[in-house]
Amino acid sequence: MSERIYVFPLFERFWHWAQAILIMLLLVTGFEVHGTYRLLGFERAVETHTVGAWTLVGLWVFAIFWHFTTGEWRQYIPTLQKVDAMIKYYVYGIFTNAPHPFRLTRLHKHNPLQRLAYLGVMLFIGPLLWFTGWFYLFYEYWAVWGWEPYLSLQWVSFFHVVGAFLMLLFLIVHVYLITTGHTVLSHFKAMITGWEEVD
How many CB atoms lie within 10 A of CB 63? Predict the structure, then answer.
């Protein structure tokens, strides 16, 4: 038997989808800036990438404020409890109709693997992209600020692209895991309506 619970409030859904759109925009324009393909043209891709990045920074600042004022930051506290059960479930349990080892509630939206993945994004991938992106953006000021002897544009670019591939990998896994609900689209619908169906 299953029941519907209201898990994702309106702002959380807005933040999720706006962030997803901006990240995809940054990936598309970033890989064009890197020379992978030609879609908008180099200058327009750079401008779009820069505007998208600053918009995402603004969204993150607002989202961090929202998470701390509502107490939702607690959803991301990492735990190693049941991590092994979650790994087993995603590796083979999901293909044998094994019961899900995590029960989603309004107070516990993310399973232990999700919490670790989000922690990785917030503490490693995000900072890697932001710092290398800012170094890239303010390259013309390196000499003025005395940074030139310590930084290499080639290495800044390399690590920015590494961060982009890590974010792309996270996005691909995230999209795959969306399909692992009661139905292929149930998690997707929950992030639109806010209502999730749980056992």
Answer: 19
Give dist(CA 55, CA 24) in Å, integer: 13
* Helix residue spans in the chain (DSSP H): 10-33, 42-70, 83-91, 112-120, 126-137, 142-145, 153-178, 186-193
**Backbone angles phi and psi of 97, in degrees to 5:** 60, 30
Of 105, 127, 109, 116, the C-alpha closest to 13 is: 109
According to DSSP, residue 56 is labeled H
Q: How far apart are CA 116 and CA 188, in angstroms?
A: 21
Question: Of 119, 101, 117, 73, nearest to 180 (Cα)?
Answer: 101
Residue-wise pLDDT for 86-134, tens only, equals 999 988 888 888 888 888 888 889 999 999 999 999 999 999 999 999 9
Q: What is the pLDDT of residues 155-184, one digit of tens each?
A: 999 999 999 999 999 999 999 988 888 788
Spatial contact of 137 and 50, defined as CB atoms under 8 Å apart: yes
**SS3 at position 195:** strand
CA–CA distance, 82 with 163 (Å, rounded to integer): 28
Delineate the domains of the chain, giving CATH numbers in brackets: 3-198 (1.20.950.20)
Helix/strand/coil for 83:
helix
- Of 106, 100, 93, give the one whose Cα is nearest residue 196: 106
Q: Can you give the pTM of this predicted structure?
A: 0.90
